[in-house]
Write a structure and sequence with these properties.
Elements lengths: L2 H12 L3 E5 L27 H4 L2 H6 L1 H11 L9 H11 L3 E6 L5 H5 L4 E3 L2 E8 L5 E2 L1 H6 L12 E5 L8 H13 L2 E5 L20 E4 L10 E3 L3 H6 L4 H4 L2
Parallel strand pairs: 1-2, 1-7, 2-3, 7-8, 8-9
Antiparallel strand pairs: 4-5, 4-6
The structure holds nicotinamide-adenine-dinucleotide.
Nicotinamide-adenine-dinucleotide binds next to loops.
Length: 244
């Protein structure tokens, strides 16, 4: 085992107020593409860049094209949690991890059993009629054609924070609280380029900031592990380290 992994395990063992902050890279091992990896959505050819398609103004002006992209590239309803999601849920059950703060919209942390999940960018699993507020599931969105409409005739919008839209203040405040009180902050699978979410990491005040990412990020950390996040979390599974 590498020195980095050994140190990571030791810190997890010592800590009982861990917070995890993650992004799209947490779900690539569940076969959901991220944005900025070599095979991520930014490196695939589209008529418009994903950032533009996933913006509020594009959604308003070009709803048909928005939903074509959204159904093809953002809805992965058969995806299953991977080792990273599962070990994080296990750490929460053991009382070591206090919150998962995610930029992801796929719901995989909850599917793995995590209960305290702060979804900074919303979730594909919640959709509402813009006119009457009626709730729709992600399965409903997949089964409807074109721009999905409610039985009342209103357009249905995913509860996902699009570019140009603001984040929920209550979720942001909770994220700041958990991060600023954490004894260990694990940041993983994120390029830390999407703001304001990425700026939340700066609220951490401790000395155990761990960054697990396959590619370089601009952020400085106390421990940097440049590896697959599933593999890194799987290394915590050895019995003597999970049993307390
Ligand atoms: P990003 O695509 O900008 O960056 C992902 C990072 O994760 C990259 O630096 C990459 O090197 C790393 N990575 C990929 N697979 C990894 C792995 N297995 N192990 C370790 N590192 C890995 O993603 P971001 O920073 O989250 O920002 C993109 C935005 O896109 C977010 O706001 C998010 O809401 C959204 N998004 C979400 C999903 C999802 O819900 N699964 C998928 C795509 C995009």
């Amino acid at each position: 085992m590498s020195t980095e992994l050994g140190r990571f395990r030791k810190w997890v063992e010592e800590s009982d107020n861990i917070v995890f902050f993650g992004g799209a890279g947490v779900s690539t091992e569940s076969n959901i593409p991220d944005f900025r990896s070599a095979d991520g959505l930014y490196n695939q050819e589209y008529e418009y860049p994903p950032e533009q398609i996933l913006s509020h103004s594009f959604y308003i002006r070009n709803s048909q094209e928005f939903y074509r992209f959204y159904r093809n590239k953002m809805l992965f309803l058969d995806a299953e949690p991977n080792k990273a999601h599962c070990v994080l849920a296990e750490l929460e059950r053991k009382g070591k991890l206090k919150a998962v703060i995610t930029q992801n919209i796929d719901g995989l942390h909850q599917k793995a059993g995590s209960e305290r999940v702060l979804e900074l960018h919303g979730s594909v699993h919640r959709n509402y009629c813009e006119h009457c507020g009626k709730f729709y599931t992600a399965e409903d969105i997949l089964s409807l054609d074109g721009v999905p409409h409610c039985t009342c005739g209103g357009r249905i919008k995913p509860d996902v924070v699009l570019y140009e839209e603001g984040l929920d203040n209550d979720i942001l405040a909770k994220a700041v609280y958990y991060i600023s009180h954490a004894d260990m902050l694990i940041v993983g699978g994120t390029s830390l380029t999407v703001y304001p979410a990425a700026g939340l990491v700066d609220y951490y005040q401790g000395k155990k900031l761990v960054l697990i990412n396959k590619s370089e990020t601009a952020k400085k950390a106390d421990l940097v592990i440049k590896d697959s996040i599933g593999k890194v979390f799987e290394s915590l599974l050895l019995e003597e380290h999970m049993d307390q």
